From TrEMBL:
EC primary class: transferase
Protein name: tRNA (guanine(10)-N(2))-dimethyltransferase
Phylogenetic classification of the source organism: Archaea, Thermoproteota, Thermoprotei, Desulfurococcales, Desulfurococcaceae
Stretch forming the signal peptide: none
UniProt KW Methyltransferase keyword: yes
Amino acid sequence: MKTFYYLLRGDNEEIGFGEARALLSIYSGNYRFLNCYTSICIFQHQEQIYEKVIRRSSFIKEAGIVDEIIDLYDADPNYIKNIIGDNTVKVRVIKGTCSVDRIKELLRELFRLKRIYGKTGFYEKVLYCSENKLIIGYNPLSIDSKELDRRKPSLRPFFRSIALKPSIARLLINLARIREGEVLLDPFAGTGSIPIEAGLLGLRYIAVELDEELVRGMKINLEHYGVFNNGLVVHGDSTELSYSVVDGIATDPPYGRSTKTFGSKVIRIYNEFLNLASNYIKKNGFISFLAPLVIEDYVDESIYRNDFILYDKHYLYVHGGLTRVVYEVVKN
């Protein structure tokens, strides 16, 4: 096994770590977590895995193979020069976590290096500093964040304000730990954010939605992105339907003032969802979903009552009036 660094999005590093852990568990059963510094986490696993992880990720910006991790104050410029050689290098300092004076001193001694700054351009090596640790790596791979932006809800042929951003939809899919070719269920599919990302990732999906208008719009969106034939769209009430066993579930149950719950109380929707999900999720299968912070205690209780294990949960700030809890639960 080799050592790899994962550079996380700065807006929610905890979620980025959770996504990295989930994706590594999909592709490598024996990965090893070593450490996390600010915005950078270190793992050991088979070499070919990190390409698959970065291809699917939404909260991981970049990944690469680690040459060395060196204490900033013990760093020998000549030793670093030998590691980097004549390669082009990207230098990045995680703001507020490293001594600026020491970094400037080190860079002056490494002045002959060809350095590329910024988010674009080709580079063969990286020199990152976080928490006064120098992470030297090579073969960096990064995500194309603009690809996700091109699929934001407002640019789809059918748009409603309730739609999830592609980055959140993809995150939920990854936390559900579903492999290519397996079946993902979204019982509250809305305008199709999660099925769209699932189809583009090579997964099969079952997308269920109660609102007839949203079902029509979802089909339009799925056709637009060329993934309509990757799964099945069902017009129906997810709390009344039954399914054969599915590999995983990723969803965003309706709870806001702008959603139609057709008279059902929000807490009841979550209770019914988890109760039914326990019947058709495979053993050791994962469910990822969002819930408003104000009902966190009720959702926690429902998870245990329905024979699930709370694997982890994260907090996603949306705006002043809404923080959502991102749940990872597993069938006992």
